[in-house]
Design brief:
alpha+beta; 7 strands; 4 helices
């Protein structure tokens, strides 16, 4: 089940910090997560299995665009379409929002994530050298298209 997080208490912020750390080995401090969600600077979608958060997608609002903070699924729950479902919810939100583009960074070696983003209409526009400790990041962009 996917939940859209618009308000955040300390407990939920701690859960979001824990899952991000579990998946990526790094995370925003829970105090920052709580403050920025409640100030409408961040928005999160979570996926729960048996009342436990097993995946998330977090975004940051920056001027006229959205930056993806992270999308991750605990390893045990991968290959079940959860990331795709989270992306569907996010893209639906984006398409009805005032924001014009989405930016994200992805590890150069993360071909599964890059395929997911490409399937959602993102295109690689740049590279950030040494963005991660051990490798570069590819920068992807999705823009609204008006016909």
């Amino acid at each position: 089940m996917i939940d859209l997080i618009n308000e955040c208490d300390e407990q939920l912020a701690k859960e979001l910090e824990i899952i991000e750390n579990k998946i990526f080995g790094t995370a925003w401090p829970y105090q920052t997560i709580q403050c920025k969600i409640n100030n409408q600077e961040f928005k999160y979608w979570t996926y729960k299995k048996d009342e436990k958060i097993v995946a998330y997608l977090g975004i940051h609002f920056v001027n006229d665009f959205i930056e993806v903070l992270g999308i991750g699924v605990i390893e045990k729950y991968r290959k079940n379409g959860i990331a795709k479902n989270l992306m569907n919810e996010f893209i639906e939100y984006f398409n009805t929002s005032m924001y014009q583009k989405i930016l994200l960074e992805v590890r150069e070696s993360n071909s599964k994530a890059k395929n997911l983003y490409t399937n959602f209409g993102f295109r690689q526009i740049s590279k950030r050298k040494n963005y991660y400790k051990t490798e570069d990041a590819d920068i992807y962009l999705k823009e609204k298209i008006y016909v």
